[in-house]
Amino acid sequence: MLLLRRIHAYIGFFIAPSVLFFALSGSLQLFDLHEPHGSYRPPALFQLMGSVHKDQVLALAHDRPGPPPSPSPGQLPAGGQPQPARPAQSLSTLLLKWYFLAIALGLAITTGVGLYFGLKATRRPRQSWALLVAGAVIPLGLVFF
Asked: What does the alpha-carbon distance between residue 77 and residue 71 come to, in Å, rounded to a whole number?
């Protein structure tokens, strides 16, 4: 049982940075905060997090092909037809998004608390910190490779 507990802790230290990243970047994507739309322009960090989360690359929205820009008000696009507005979301969809936001934040908080307790209780802090750092550095290295 002690071996299983140690393996669980070491795997947790290694994957915790990715769990935190995906929980936080996924929560941004729930409300499309990672992509420009209308007059909204997201911070570059949100765009980069979204591109790594979705496409496993570092790219800003203007670096990726996307839909053509919207015409200014009162101007029709090249085809002569007005662009349809973003569809309104149903109440159940909106509530589900807020539910998943709560789940993502809960996952991030419990992962942070688990790291805190795990690092306080470990008998091998150097190994634990090494796994935690490796779990953060390896994905960063692969993104920039």
From this structure: 6
